[in-house]
Amino acid sequence: MASENILDDLLFNEESKQRVSIFIAFCMVLAVYHATVFWVIMDDDIATKDAMEMFSVSFNTNSHLHEETRTIDDGDREVLSFEVPTSMFDDHDGFGVLYVNINYQETSGQIGDSCDTVAADLKPNSVQAEWQDERNVLSGLSTDCSTISLALTVFPEFTGNQTQVADMNAEHWAGQWTNDAHGRGMFELQIEVDASQPPGSFAPTVSDDDEEVTVSWEAVFFDVVVEEIES
Amino acid sequence: MAVENLLFIGAILSVTLGCLALRFVRRNEKLEWNEKLAAHLICLMFIVKGLQNAAGGYSNTDGSESVWQFWKALMHFLDFYFDISIVMIALVYPVPILRTPRQLKIGYGIMVGVMVVRLLMVMLGRPNTVLELFGMMYVVCGLIWGSVYIKFRMLDETQQNKSTRNIAFVAALFLTLLLGHIWMYTPDMLFLNETFYFIDLWSGTNMTSTMFDYIWQLGHVFGIAVGLAILYVEIKQAINGQASPMLYIIIAYMLSGMLRYLMTSFNSLGEVGLAWNDDFTLLGIWNLLTAGIHFTMVRPLIAMYILLRYGLFDINENNRDMARLMTVMLIVVATSALLELIQTIIPINQMLSAALMGILIAFGVGWEERSFDTMASEPASLREDIDKGWFPTFDIPQRHMDRLIMVSAVYVVLMFFLSFIYWQMNIYEKILEVV
After folding, report:
1. Among B146, B192, B217, whose Cβ lies nearest the Cβ of A23?
2. How many angstroms separate the CA of residue A23 from the nearest CA in chain B?
3. Are A187 and A83 in contact (CB under 8 A)?
C-alpha cells in the first residue's frame, strides 16, 4: 500500500530502492565528472571562450585590361560587350570591381568644330554583380572630350581596403571572400554619339557625322589574405 | 534562413496544437485532478512555447538593429514559463509525486516562487543571474521522471501489467520531449568536446557568468545521465524479451549525437560548404535535421500523442471530427514543412517535390485514419491494476483551471510589455557595454 510520501514508494521500497538509488548515484557521478572537467581540467579554455580572435582581411589585386576602339555614327547607339577570360576566375579568389573609361577626341578635323556629346551607359543584366550598390557609377555623359569613368562593384562589399573582423576562424573569413560566381558573363556598354556640327556645316564638304570612341575595360580581381591579429 | 523557417513552423505547430487541445481538455469532465492539471499545463506550455519559437525566429533574422533586444528578451522570458510548467507537470503526471492538497500547494508554491524571483530579477534589470537557476528544471524533471521510469520499467515480470508499462513509457516520452536534444550531447560531454563545455545561452558575449553557464550545463549533465540510464534499461529489457519502442527512440537520439560528435571533432568537415549549396555546411544541416526538428516538430507531436493516447482528450461523437481535423492539420503542416526544408538544402525539382509531398501526405493521412481510431477508441490506461495509493483522489475545481489559463494569458501579455521595455531602453545593449 502506497503512503502519502512518494519517497516511501520510490526510495524506501525494497523492490525499487536499489535500482533508483543506483540511478541517482549515477547522476551524481556524472555531475562530479562534469564539475571536475568544468572547474579544473578545462577551466582556462572555458574562461577565455568568449575572447574573440581578431583577423585582418586584406586583398592583393590584379587587373585584366582590355581596350577597344569603335567609330560611332552621329545619332547612333551602339552596344559594346566585354567578358572576362575564365582563367582570371580560376587564378583569383574573386572579381572585385569593374572600371570602364570612355575616351574620345574631336576627330572631324574641321576648324572650330567643338567636342561631340558622348553618353555611356553600363546596362544592368543577368551578370551576378552588385548592380544596386551606392558606389556604382553606371552612366556618364561628356560634352568636352573629357573621359567618362564608370565603375561597378562586382563582389559584395568589396572596397579593396584592409578590414578587421572578429570571431570565427581564418578559413571562415577566407571562405567569405572566395566566390567565382560574381562577374561571370557578358557586360554590355551602350554608347551614343551626338556630333556637334562645325560652323559652316551647310557647305557639302564641311560636316561631322561620326566619332571615334576608345573604351578601356579594367576588371579588378583579388586574392584575399587573412591573418590573425596577435593580442 | 532554414533555421528561422523551422522555428516559425514549430511556432505554428505548437500554438495550433496548444489552442485546439486546450479546447478539448477543458471540456473533458472525466479527468482526475492530476490529469486535469497536466493536460491544461501541456496545452498552455505549448502555446507559450510556440510564441517563444516565433520570437526565436525573429531574433535570428533581426540581427543588426536594436529590435533584436525585443525578440531575445521575449524568447528568454517566455522560456521561464516552459521551465516552470514542465516541472509542474512532472510533479503530478503520469503518477503524482505530490499526493495531498498540502503537498501540491507547497510544491507548486515553490515553483511559483522561482518564477517570481526570476521576474523580479528581470524587472530590476538583472537578467541572466544564477538566481534564475536556469537549467535546474532538467535536474528536477530528470530525477522525477527518471525515477518513475526506472521504478515501473524494471518491475519484476510478475508485477508488470499494461498500466505499469504505460506509466514507464509516458515518463520516458516526457523525458524525450524535454531532454532529446541533450542526449545528442552525450559523446561531447564524456569526451571533453568544446561543443558541450562551451555551451552558453549567450554565446560570444559575457552576458552570463561562469556559474550561470555551469548551472545550465549541470542540467544537461543530468539529462545525459537519464539518457544513458534509459539506454541501459531498454537494452537490458530487450535482452529479457521485453523490448519497447523507447529503445529505438533513445538509440536514434544517441546515434545522431555520435554522428554530430564525429563532425565537430574534425571541425573542418563540418565547416565546409556543401558541393551543391554553399549556404549550408554539413554540420549546419545535421543540426537542423536533428536538434532543430526535435525542438520544433517532435516536441509538439510527442505532446499530441500523450494527450490523445492516454485519454486526456475525451473523444466522442460530438468532437471526433474536430479532433481528427486537428491531427490531419498537424500531419500536413509537419510533412510539407519538412519537405520544403529538405528542398531548401537539397536541390530537388519542384514537380518532383510536389509529387513526393502528395505521396507523403497521403501516407500520413492514411496512417492517421488507422492510428487515430485506435487511440481515440481505446485510450491507454495508467491506473488499471495499480495500487490506488499511487493515485490519491481529491478534487480541483474547474475554476482553478480557468484561473491558470487567465494567469498564463496575463503572463504572456506582461512578457511582451517587459520585452518592449528592454528594447526601447536598450537594456541588453547597455548590459553588454558594461560587461
Report:
1. B146
2. 7
3. yes
Residue A199 lies in a domain: yes
Residues A140 and A62 grouped into a single domain: yes
Amino acid found at B284: G
d(CA B327, CA B418): 35
Same domain, A41 and A58: no
What pLDDT score does B163 carry?
Answer: 93
For chain B, residues with pLDDT lower than 50 are none
Domain check: are A179 and A161 in the same one? yes
C-alpha–C-alpha distance, residues B16 and B322, integer Å: 13
Residue A10's pLDDT is: 76
With CA atoms as reference, report the closest residue to B10 among B386, B290, B292, B355.
B292
Q: What is the pLDDT of residue B336?
A: 74
Q: A227 in helix, strand or coil?
A: strand
Measured CA to CA, the distance from residue A141 to residue A144 in angstroms comes to: 9
Q: Chain B residue closest to A38 (CA)?
A: B197
Chunked mean pLDDT (size 10), chain A, 231 residues: 72 80 95 96 85 84 93 88 93 95 78 80 93 93 92 93 82 88 94 77 59 93 89 60
Number of neighbours of residue B315 by Cβ within 10 angstroms: 20
The whole model's pTM is what?
0.75
Q: Do residue A130 and residue A202 come from a single domain?
A: yes
Q: Are A83 and A189 in contact (CB under 8 A)?
A: no
**CATH at A100:** 2.60.120.380
Judge: A19–B210 Cβ closer than 8 Å, yes or no: no
Please give the tally of structural domains in chain A.
2
Query: Which stretches of A126-209 are assigned E, i.e. beta strand?
Result: 139-142, 148-153, 163-166, 186-194
**Is residue B108 less than 8 Å (CB to CB) from chain A?**
no
Min Cα distance B190 → chain A (Å) is 8
Angle of helix B33-61 relative to helix B68-90, nearest 10 degrees, comes to: 160
**Which one-letter DSSP state was computed for residue B103?**
H
Nearest to B50, CA basis, from B9, B2, B1, B85:
B9
- The whole-number pLDDT of residue B28 equals 87
Interface contact flag, A19 B99, Cβ < 8 Å: no
Asked whether residue A102 falls in the same domain as residue A152, the answer is yes
Torsion of Cα atoms, B239 then B240 then B244 then B247, to 10°: -30
- Both A149 and A201 in one domain: the answer is yes
CA distance B241 to chain A (A): 20
Q: How far is residue B435's CA from residue B431's CA, in Å, rounded to a whole number?
A: 6
A121 phi-psi bin (left φ>0, alpha ψ -120 to 50, beta other):
beta
Domain shared by A24 and A84, yes or no:
no
Range of the domain at A187: 54-229
Q: How far apart are CA B376 and CA B310, in angstroms?
A: 9
- Which residues, other chains included, contact B230 with Cβ-Cβ below 8 Å and sequence gap of 6+? B146, B149, B172, B175, B246, B250
Task: Pick the residue of A3, A5, A8, A9 with the most B CBs within 10 A to test the interface with B by mutation.
Answer: A9
Whether A89 and A73 share a structural domain: yes
Q: Which among B96, B97, B224 has the least Cβ separation from residue A30?
A: B224
In a domain, A62, yes or no: yes
Strand A163-166 to A148-153 pairing: unpaired
Q: Is residue A84 part of a domain?
A: yes
| CB < 8 Å to A42, chain B | 192, 197
Residue A1 lies inside a defined structural domain of this protein: no
Q: What is the predicted pLDDT for the residue at B12? A: 85
Please write down the HEC assignment for all residues of B41-95: HHHHHHHHHHHHHHHHHHHHHCCCCCCHHHHHHHHHHHHHHHHHHHHHHHCCCCC
B226 CB neighbour count, 10 Å cutoff: 30
